[in-house]
C-alpha cells in the first residue's frame, strides 16, 4: 500500500507539528508514508474566492504529484473536500476534451484522497490508535468535514478511544465557526461575531482544549480565544492521536506555537 | 408610506457590520431562527422518505425548467380556458404597468394584498402608490413592516427583526393613520397583538374590491394557482374581492396536479415546521356564474424579470427551483448575524445571495458583494428541500464577479467584465498560484517567514487588519513541515523531489 501524506499549505507553513503528528500516527499503525516534496496547495483559497482559472494548474499538479499512490491522506477536512468534490469538476471542465487523460487522472486521485480520520476508520479499520491524552476536550466538527465529506462520528469515535481523554459536548457544535477562508477578511465583522459565539460555546464547556480536523478553522478559533485571553487551546485531532503516555510525538514544536502537548500549559 | 427602498444600499459587508453591532437585532434574530431551526429538524425527521421527497422535488423542478416554455404555454391555455386572462411581463416595470392599468380599469383606488415575494421584488406597492392606488398588506408580519415604514427582512416572517414590544409601539402609533386604530391599552401579548391586527384588517377585507396576490405554485395542466399560508388573510383576499390579480414568477409552474403532492409535503415542514399548513387556497380561472364563489375577474401576470437569464446558466439555474420556504435563512449563521436588510433585496439570506446577482446582475457594489456573503459552511444546502447546492452557485457567481465571463443579460449572451476593486486580490491570487506551482519558491518563502518570525507584528496594517482586529495571528514556526522532512528524511525526499520536479516540468510543456 503506497500512502502519501498531503500535508496542506496551511499545516506545512504554520502548523508543522500537525503534519508530524499525522505521520507519527500512521507510522505507529504500520503504514509506510511518503511525502512527495513537489506538493503544494489544493487550490481551495483560489477556487472558493472565484479564481477557478488560477486553480486549474494546482489541480493538475495535485494529480501529477499523487497519481502513483494508492491513498492520499490529509489532516484537513476542507482540503480533502476540495479535492474530492471540486477537483474532478474543475479538471473535467479545464482538461476534458483533448487532454481527457488529466481529467480522468484528477478524478482518480480525488477518489483516493482521504481526510485522516476517514483513512484511519474506513481504510485501516482502526478506532483505537493507542493514544493517551489526559485532558478535557471538546470537539468542533468543521463544516466541510461534517457536510461535504460526511465524516459523521469518525473523529468522535477516535477521540472516545483515547485513554485519559474526557470528551465534553460543545453547544451549537454544528454551527460554522465563521472562518470561511477569505470570508474571514471580506466579511470580518460577521466572521468575528460567529467566531466569538463559537469561542463562548467552547469556553462554556470547561474543556482545556478544542479539537478539530482543520487547522485553518483552528487558526481562526484559536486567534479569537487568544484575543479573549482564554486558556482553552486549539488542538488538531492528529496531535491528540499522536500523543502517548511516552509523551507527545511532536514535542519541540509544541513550544513553537503549535496547538499540541498540554503539559506545560497545564501550569497556567 | 410605501416603505423604504433597497435601492442604493451599501455592499453587504458594510450593512452586515452595522447589523452585527445592533445587539437588539441580533437577539431578535437569534431567538427567532434558533426556535424554528430545531422545529424544522423535528418535522423533517418525522418523514422516513424525506431524502426521496427532496430528490423528487428537485427532479420535478429541473424537468419543468428544462421545458419551461412548453409548460408556460400549457398554463396559459388552461388559465384562459377557465376564464382568466394571462399577461406576460418581461421585467419589473412592465409588470407594474400591467397591474396598475388593471386596477385603474376597475375604478378602485385601494387593493388588499396577500403576502407575495414577486410583488416585493418588483416594488409593486410603490408603483401603485405613485399611481394614487393604496395597497394594504394583510399578512400580519407584512402589515408590521408596512405600518413601520420598514423593509422586509425574511421571506416567511418579514418582521422577524422586530420583537413584541416594537410591534406594539408600531401598532399604537401607526394603525390609526391607515384605518382602524389599535385598541386602547394594547399590550405586547401575542394574542392581543393578533386581535388588534384582525380588527384592523377585517375592515379592509370587507371593503376591498381588488385583491393582489402571488402564488406558490401554478399547475400547467389545469391552470390552477395555489397559495399556501397560515393566517387565513390570504383566503380572504383570494375569495372576497371581485377582481384578483396574481403576479407570479415563471419558475413557479409545475406540470401536473399530482406534482403538488411532493411540494405540499416539502414546503410546510421546511418553512413553518408544520406537517401541513393551515390554509391552502387553490383557484382555477374566474368564477363564471352569478353567485359563484370567488373573483369574477382573474388576471395572471407572468413575471420574467431576469429569470430566463438565470435559466441560461447551467450552474446558476438551480436557484430557480426555490420554493421560498426560508429554511436556508433560518439555518444560516451569516443571516442570523447580518439580518435580512443587508442583502439588499426582497430575497435575503443564502437564496438571496445566489438569486439576486442572477436576477439583477453583478454590476453594483452590493450585488457583486452578495456571492461573498457566506462562509460556504453548507448548512443551507443541507436543509434546502429542493437540494439547491447554494455553496456551488455562490462560488460560481464569485467567479463571474472576479473573472467575468459569458453570461446572459436581458436575454442576450454577453461577456461580463470582472467587477472593479478586485485587482489587488487577483494579483495576490496569481502570485500565490505561481508560488504553489514552484515548491522551491514556496520553501524559500517559508524559510524567510521562519527566520524573521520574531519580528512579525501582532497587528497588521492594510487588509490584514481585518484579521487582527479580532484575532491573534498564529506564530510562524521555526521550520516548515517540508523543511523538517528534508532534514529528517533528507536524501530520500530530496531525490524524490528532484524527480518530481523534473516530471512536473516535462509534463507541463508550454505552461508558465
Ligand atoms: S433555497 Fe431552498 S431552503 Fe432556501 S428558500 Fe429556497 S427552497 Fe427554501
**CATH architectural category of the largest domain in chain A:** 3-Layer(aba) Sandwich
**What is Rg of chain B?**
27 Å
Cα Rg of chain A: 18 Å
Q: Report how far the terminal alpha carbons of chain A are from each other.
A: 44 Å
* Broad CATH class of the largest domain in chain A: Alpha Beta
The count of helical stretches of chain A stands at: 14
What oligomeric state do these chains adopt? heterodimer
Report the largest inter-chain contact: A-B, 74 and 76 residues
Number of strands of chain B: 12
How would you sum up the major sheet of chain B?
A: 6 strands, parallel
Structural class based on helices, strands and sheet pairing of chain B: alpha/beta
* Main sheet: strand order of chain A: 2-1-3-4
Structural class of the helix and strand makeup of chain A?
alpha/beta
The residue ranges of chain A in which pLDDT falls below 50 over 5 or more consecutive positions are 251-268
Name the helicity range of chain A.
40-55%
Poorly predicted ranges of chain B (pLDDT <50, ≥5 residues)? 493-512
Q: What does the overall shape of chain A look like? A: globular
Q: Report the β-strand fraction of chain A as a percent range.
A: 5-15%
GO biological process, one term (chain B): lactate metabolic process
GO molecular function (chain B): 4 iron, 4 sulfur cluster binding; metal ion binding
InterPro entries (chain B): 4Fe4S_Fe-S-bd, 4Fe4S_Fe_S_CS, FTHF_cligase-like_sf, Helical_ferredxn, LUD_dom, LutB/LldF, LutB_C, NagB/RpiA_transferase-like
Domain Lactate utilization protein B C-terminal (chain B): 397-488
Overview of the structural elements:
The complex is a heterodimer of chains A (268) and B (512). Chain A has 268 residues and is of the alpha/beta class. In chain A, 51% of the residues lie in helices and 10% in strands. Chain A has helices at residues 9-14, 16-28, 44-49, 52-66, 77-95, 100-111, 116-123, 143-149, 154-160, 183-186, 188-204, 215-227, 237-242, 263-266; strands at residues 3-5, 33-34, 71-74, 113-115, 136-139, 166-168, 209-212, 233-236. In chain A, strand 7, helix 12 and strand 8 (233-236) form a beta-alpha-beta unit. In chain A, helix 11 packs across helix 12 (215-227). The radius of gyration of chain A is 18 Å and the shape is globular. Chain A starts with a strand and ends with a helix. By secondary structure, chain B is an alpha/beta fold. Chain B has a domain at 422-504. Chain B is built from 24 helices and twelve strands. In chain B, strands 1-10-7-4-2-3 form a six-stranded parallel β-sheet, sandwiched between helices. A four-stranded mixed β-sheet of chain B has the order 8-5-6-9. In chain B, helix 9 (164-178) packs parallel to helix 10 (190-207) and helix 16 (349-359) crosses helix 19. In chain B, 50% of the residues are buried. Chains A and B meet through helix 1, helix 2, helix 3, helix 4 and helix 8 of A and helix 1, helix 15, helix 18, helix 19 and helix 20 of B. The structure holds iron/sulfur cluster. The site of iron/sulfur cluster has 14 residues of chain B, from helix 14.
Amino acid at each position: 500500500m503506497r500512502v502519501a501524506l498531503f500535508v496542506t499549505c496551511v499545516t506545512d507553513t504554520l502548523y508543522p507539528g500537525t503534519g508530524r503528528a499525522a505521520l507519527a500516527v500512521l507510522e505507529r499503525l504500520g503504514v509506510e508514508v511518503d511525502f512527495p516534496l513537489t506538493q503544494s496547495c489544493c487550490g481551495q483559497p483560489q477556487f472558493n474566492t472565484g479564481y477557478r482559472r488560477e486553480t486549474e494548474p494546482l489541480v493538475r499538479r495535485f494529480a501529477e504529484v499523487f497519481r502513483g499512490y494508492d491513498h492520499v491522506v490529509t489532516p484537513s477536512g476542507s482540503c480533502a473536500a476540495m479535492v474530492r468534490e471540486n477537483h474532478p469538476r474543475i479538471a473535467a471542465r479545464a482538461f476534458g476534451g483533448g487532454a481527457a487523460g488529466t481529467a480522468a487522472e484528477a478524478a482518480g486521485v480525488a477518489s483516493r484522497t482521504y481526510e485522516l480520520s476517514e483513512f484511519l476508520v474506513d481504510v485501516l479499520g482502526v478506532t483505537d490508535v493507542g493514544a493517551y491524552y489526559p485532558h478535557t476536550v471538546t470537539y468542533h466538527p468543521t463544516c466541510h468535514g461534517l457536510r461535504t465529506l460526511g465524516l459523521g462520528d469518525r473523529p468522535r469515535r477516535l477521540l472516545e478511544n483515547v485513554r485519559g481523554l474526557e470528551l465534553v459536548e460543545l453547544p451549537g457544535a454544528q454551527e460554522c465557526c465563521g472562518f470561511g477562508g477569505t470570508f474571514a477578511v471580506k466579511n470580518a465583522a460577521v466572521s468575528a461575531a460567529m467566531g466569538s459565539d463559537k469561542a463562548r460555546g467552547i469556553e462554556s464547556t470547561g474543556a482545556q482544549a478544542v479539537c478539530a480536523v482543520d487547522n485553518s478553522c483552528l487558526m481562526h478559533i484559536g486567534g479569537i480565544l487568544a484575543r479573549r485571553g482564554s486558556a482553552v487551546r486549539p488542538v488538531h485531532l492528529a496531535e491528540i492521536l499522536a500523543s502517548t503516555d511516552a509523551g507527545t510525538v511532536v514535542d519541540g514544536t509544541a513550544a513553537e506555537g503549535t496547538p499540541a502537548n498540554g503539559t506545560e500549559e497545564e501550569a497556567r | 408610506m410605501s416603505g423604504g427602498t433597497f435601492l442604493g444600499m451599501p455592499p453587504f459587508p458594510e450593512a452586515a457590520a452595522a447589523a452585527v453591532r445592533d445587539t437588539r437585532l441580533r437577539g431578535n434574530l437569534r431567538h427567532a431562527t434558533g426556535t424554528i431551526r430545531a422545529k424544522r429538524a423535528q418535522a423533517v425527521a418525522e418523514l422516513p422518505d424525506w431524502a426521496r421527497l427532496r430528490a423528487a422535488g428537485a427532479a420535478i423542478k429541473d424537468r419543468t425548467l428544462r421545458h419551461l416554455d412548453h409548460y408556460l404555454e400549457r398554463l396559459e391555455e388552461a388559465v384562459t380556458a377557465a376564464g382568466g386572462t394571462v399577461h406576460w411581463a418581461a421585467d419589473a416595470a412592465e409588470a407594474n404597468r400591467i397591474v396598475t392599468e388593471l386596477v385603474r380599469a376597475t375604478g378602485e383606488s385601494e387593493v388588499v394584498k396577500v403576502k407575495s415575494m414577486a410583488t416585493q421584488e418588483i416594488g409593486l406597492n410603490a408603483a401603485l402608490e405613485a399611481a394614487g392606488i393604496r395597497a394594504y398588506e394583510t399578512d400580519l408580519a407584512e402589515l408590521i413592516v408596512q405600518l413601520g415604514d420598514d423593509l422586509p427582512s425574511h421571506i416567511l416572517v418579514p418582521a422577524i427583526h422586530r420583537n413584541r414590544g416594537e410591534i406594539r409601539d408600531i401598532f399604537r402609533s401607526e394603525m390609526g393613520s391607515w384605518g382602524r386604530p389599535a385598541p386602547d391599552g394594547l399590550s405586547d401579548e401575542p394574542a392581543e397583538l393578533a386581535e388588534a391586527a384582525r380588527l384592523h384588517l377585517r375592515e379592509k377585507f370587507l371593503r376591498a374590491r381588488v385583491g393582489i396576490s402571488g402564488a406558490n405554485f401554478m399547475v400547467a395542466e389545469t391552470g390552477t394557482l395555489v397559495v399556501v399560508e397560515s393566517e387565513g388573510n390570504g383566503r380572504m383576499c383570494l375569495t372576497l374581492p371581485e377582481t384578483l390579480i396574481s403576479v407570479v414568477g415563471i419558475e413557479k409552474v409545475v406540470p401536473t396536479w399530482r406534482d403538488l403532492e411532493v411540494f405540499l409535503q416539502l414546503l410546510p415542514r421546511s418553512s413553518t415546521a408544520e406537517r401541513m399548513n393551515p390554509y391552502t387556497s387553490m383557484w382555477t380561472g374566474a368564477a363564471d356564474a352569478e353567485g359563484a364563489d370567488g373573483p369574477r375577474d382573474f388576471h395572471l401576470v407572468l413575471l420574467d424579470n431576469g429569470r430566463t437569464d438565470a435559466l441560461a446558466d447551467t450552474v446558476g439555474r438551480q436557484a430557480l427551483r426555490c420554493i421560498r420556504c426560508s429554511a436556508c435563512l433560518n439555518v444560516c449563521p451569516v443571516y442570523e448575524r447580518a439580518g435580512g436588510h443587508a442583502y439588499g433585496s426582497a430575497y435575503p439570506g443564502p437564496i438571496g445571495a445566489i438569486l439576486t446577482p442572477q436576477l439583477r446582475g453583478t454590476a453594483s457594489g452590493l450585488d457583486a458583494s452578495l456571492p461573498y456573503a457566506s462562509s460556504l459552511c453548507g448548512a443551507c444546502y443541507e436543509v434546502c428541500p429542493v437540494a439547491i447546492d447554494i455553496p456551488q452557485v455562490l462560488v460560481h457567481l464569485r467567479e463571474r464577479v472576479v473573472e467575468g465571463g459569458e453570461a446572459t443579460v436581458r436575454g442576450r449572451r454577453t461577456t461580463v467584465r470582472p467587477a472593479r476593486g478586485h485587482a489587488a486580490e487577483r494579483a495576490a491570487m496569481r502570485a500565490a498560484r505561481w508560488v504553489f506551482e514552484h515548491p522551491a519558491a514556496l520553501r524559500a518563502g517559508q524559510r524567510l517567514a521562519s527566520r524573521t518570525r520574531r519580528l512579525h507584528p501582532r497587528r497588521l496594517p492594510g487588509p490584514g487588519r481585518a484579521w487582527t482586529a479580532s484575532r491573534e495571528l498564529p506564530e510562524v514556526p521555526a521550520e516548515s513541515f517540508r523543511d523538517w522532512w528534508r532534514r529528517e528524511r533528507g536524501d530520500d525526499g530530496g531525490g524524490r523531489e528532484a524527480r518530481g520536479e523534473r516530471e512536473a516540468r516535462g509534463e507541463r510543456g508550454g505552461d508558465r
